[in-house]
Amino acid sequence: DRAVLDTEMLARAEAAGVEVRRGTKVRRVLLGPGGLQRVVADGDGTGPAPAWSAPWVVDASGFAALLARQE
After folding, report:
1. Do the beta carbons of residue 70 and residue 61 sit within 8 Å?
2. What's residue 71's pLDDT?
3. Distance (Å, rounded) from C-alpha 44 to C-alpha 59?
4. pLDDT tier for residue 4 given thresholds of 50, 70 and 90
5. What are the start-end ranges of the H helices in 1-62?
6. Per-residue pLDDT tens over the stretch 25-70
7. Degrees (nearest 5) of the Cα angle 32, 16, 13?
8. Which positions ≥6 away from 57 have C-beta within 8 Å?
């Protein structure tokens, strides 16, 4: 069952220290060669859009495939 697998993978990632942000709408992932990747999310309109940097970014958007659709 895919839902069981997804739940287990998420639990293990969180247990390993991965920062999970539920309910966050990612607008763009800025991929760089090597180094850190930058993730830009929707803001609330009161300041700059929230953004994070990480050496790895996992696109778990499923059928939506954010990274595959991004130019």
Report:
1. no
2. 66
3. 23
4. very high
5. 2-15
6. 888 889 888 889 999 988 777 878 889 998 888 887 777 777 778 7
7. 70
8. 29, 31, 37, 39, 67
Give the end-to-end CA distance of the chain in Å, rounded to a whole number.
33
CA distance 25 to 49: 11
Q: What are the phi and psi torsion angles at 26 (to 5°)?
A: -80, 130
Is 25 in contact with 41 (CB distance < 8 Å)?
Answer: yes
Q: Which residue has the tokens 């929707």?
A: 42
CB within 8 Å of 18: residues ≥ 6 apart: none
Neighbours of 23 (CB within 10 A): 4
